Amino acid sequence: MSIYHTSFADVPLRAQSITERVFDGLVMRPDDVVLIDGPTGRSLTAADFMDQVKRLAGGLSAAGLGHGKVVALMAPNMPEYCIIFHAVAWAGGTITTLNPTYTATEIRHQLADSRADVLFTIPDFLATAQAGAGDLDVIAIGTDAYAALLGDPLPAQVPVDIVAHTVVLPYSSGTTGLPKGVMLSHRNLVVNVDQIIAAADFRAGEVAAGFLPFFHIYGMTVLMNVHLAGGGAVVTMPRFDLPLFLQISQDHKARRMWIVPPVALALAKHPLVDQYDLSSIEQVFSGAAPMGAELSNAVGKRLDCISLQGYGMTELSPVSHVTPATAAVAGASGLALPNTSCRIVDIDTGADLPAGEDGELWIKGPQVMQGYLNNPTATAATITDDGWLRTGDIARIDDQGYMFIVDRLKELIKYKGFQVAPAELEAALVALEGITDAAVIGLPDAEAGELPIAFVVAGNGAPDADAIMAHLGRTLAHYKQLHQIHIVPEIPKSASGKILRRMLRDRIAAQAE
Ligand code: 4UU
């Protein structure tokens, strides 16, 4: 069996919670500003942050929302996001993170699936949050109800099993089906922080303009936890905004930009970029979707810096590969992190493939998730008995150990780095009167990466395309919206009933020629 082992020295597996790990990076620098709210400039020192985490943890515990409870968090990036996240972890609970643009329908689903005990949001989203939450308590950040929860400080981490306790439950559809709760332990999060700090050469003093959403595992681990634990700081941005991103990067002398490919496109092409002094930027780091060599080179040239990417997946806490700055290869997704091994497996025979050949990427390491919440079947289909995580991505490894993502085997669509699960859209479509079958695929797009489009079998009484789009506009978040609807007589399927997505993709490609 040809297993590709990491070429990095292993990092130690610490017996710490994620909050203990983050506090380790803060206690020796209490007066450093570590969190700044980008739009207002409001800032928190390391001491402020630790104090508020402990006080909120105390209040949550006193209110019966601590140990063993599930706290849902639906907010844009802001300092309080990090406070709530770490307060729940410190109190021995579990955080499930929701996209703040979710509709009431989407909120209801995740709260029920995760069995959440309370929901935190911001006043702007309170009405939608309450509509989705039903009888569940909703607490809006910054209101009296929130202030009342800042109680007596909880001085120490509430004891939990570092390896077995699920501290965070982000949602991912994985290789197939509907979004599922991804169970990540303290061990998963802590080790990934240490793996990234080592392999991505994270340095004390790094400040980043933080627009990558904290609810998604990339922003959660890399921006929030690596920056806090690694001696850095984050300027939080509630959403991506090019002028603000450039301004913050310039004013705070950011060393690195953590981005996704659509932002790489803006950095390579937008005229505004020339109006800022970005000479502090040494590196642009992209992840969450493919960034081709051409775009990567264009960004590096424009900003006169190193341009590289990492590869990750919610189920990997999320990172398994990063490209070292000292040996960047355009288009590569990187080398396996410390403590991490990978295999390239032939999708037909299951045989391990040698360097240079394309197959499914499998990963093994301490950052591999515990499994999917309440879903042993999906867990067993994703993690082998001996601990290999099947990514559902097709990759190749060159003879230097660089991994290149070449295709996606799984049905997942990525819109600007956000997950769109075809199964979720298909279920929403066939729930409509008169629609008897549906298939959703991704249409390649230069800016978004992919756009969700649908094939629909419409019988008597079915709504027309405009009515379908209007309905989805009310029930699903903006990034899941369909960009085309094709009414077809039938959906192509295999003998076992699986949608032949490749055939649909080929049909659309042929029409475009
Ligand atoms: C081609 O997107 C993520 C995590 C991204 C991430 C985080 C920190 C990347 C690098 C990093 O340092 O998670 P999910 O679960 O939303 O989506 C996972 C999927 C992968 O299976 C793959 O299909 O996103 C795609 N993907 C990529 N594809 C992620 N990174 C890449 C990449 N090239 N570099």
**Which CATH architecture of one domain is right?**
2-Layer Sandwich
Q: What ligand species are in this complex?
A: ligand 4UU
Global morphology? globular
Q: Radius of gyration in whole Å, from Cα? A: 22 Å
β-strand percent reads: 15-25%
Instruction: Please identify the structural class as seen in this structure.
Output: alpha/beta
Q: Treating each run of at least 4 consecutive H or I residues as one helix, how many helices?
A: 15
Report the biggest beta sheet as strand number plus sense, adding barrel if it closes. 5 strands, antiparallel
Per CATH, what is the topology of one domain?
A: GMP Synthetase, Chain A, domain 3
Question: What is the CATH superfamily of one domain?
Answer: ANL, C-terminal domain
User: Low-confidence stretches at least 5 residues in length (pLDDT < 50)?
Assistant: none
| C-alpha end-to-end distance | 42 Å
Give the integer mean of the pLDDT values.
97
Strand numbers in spatial order across the main sheet: 1-18-19-21-22
Helix content: 25-40%
User: Care to count the β-strands?
Assistant: 27
Which CATH top level class of one domain fits?
A: Alpha Beta
Give a structural overview.
- The protein is an alpha/beta fold and 513 residues long.
- The chain has a domain at 413-512: GMP Synthetase, Chain A, domain 3 (2-Layer Sandwich), CATH 3.30.300.30.
- The protein contains 15 helices and 27 strands.
- α2 (46-62) packs across α3 (79-90), α4 (104-114) packs across α5 (126-133) and α10 (261-269) crosses α11.
- The two termini are 42 Å apart.
- The relative contact order is 0.11.
- Bound molecules: ligand 4UU.
- Residues 172, 217-218, 222, 287-290, 309-314, 318-319, 322, 333, 391, 393, 405, 408, 414, 417, 419 line the site of ligand 4UU.
- InterPro entries: AMP-bd_C, AMP-bd_C_sf, AMP-binding_CS, AMP-dep_synth/lig_dom, ANL_N_sf.
- This is 4-coumarate:CoA ligase.
- Belongs to the ATP-dependent AMP-binding enzyme family.
- Keywords: Ligase.
